[in-house]
Amino acid sequence: MTGSQNDPRHQTPSVKTFGFPREYRIRSQQDFDAIYAAKQRAGDQNLLLFAIQNELPQSRLGVSVSKKNGNAIKRARKKRLLREAFRLIRSQLPAGLDLIAIPRAEKDGDLRGYQNSLKYLSQKLKRRLEQQSG
């Protein structure tokens, strides 16, 4: 092993730049309840997306996958795909939203479809929330 392999200047960029750290996640039941209570939602063939404005510089994501989506393996796959879609495009999403993504049970979503849906629906909800508050 050469010395350059351990040199941090020669390593690939940190996973943190594309990671899914805690500040981008919605985990508490209180947060989920507040988002559902706001009753701001939009949907398409892939997702139902609920949103509320937050006071943060970034958007956060919560995922809810019901048993209608299949067994535990199928539900876990949908959760992973949704988180990955959010992780990859979060810089393209409007800032300052708390989002809950619910995949459609009747459709097996894919990464590209979830990315497109997250972008489109979050922009739609952001406009709606700005009109409502302004």
Outline the biggest β-sheet: 4 strands, mixed
Structure annotation, total helices: 4
Order of helices and strands: HHEEEHEH
SSE-based structural type: alpha+beta
Taken as a percent bin, the fraction of beta residues is 15-25%
Characterise this structure.
With about 130 residues, this protein is of the alpha+beta class. The protein has a domain at about 40-134: Ribosomal Protein S5, domain 2. The protein has helices at about 5, 30-40, 70-90, 110-134, and strands spanning about 40-45, 45-55, 60-65, 95-105. A four-stranded mixed sheet has the order 1-2-4-3, sandwiched between helices. α3 (about 70-90) packs across α4. The radius of gyration is 17 Å and the shape is globular. Residues about 5-15 have low confidence and may be disordered.
Features of this protein?
41% helix, alpha+beta, 16% strand, four-stranded mixed sheet, 134 residues
SSE order and pairing:
Blueprint: H1 3-6, H2 29-38, E1 41-43, E2 47-53, E3 60-63, H3 72-89, E4 97-103, H4 111-133
Parallel strand pairs: 3-4
Antiparallel strand pairs: 1-2, 2-4
Helix pairs in contact: 3-4
Quick take:
The protein has 134 residues and is α+β, with helices and mostly antiparallel strands.
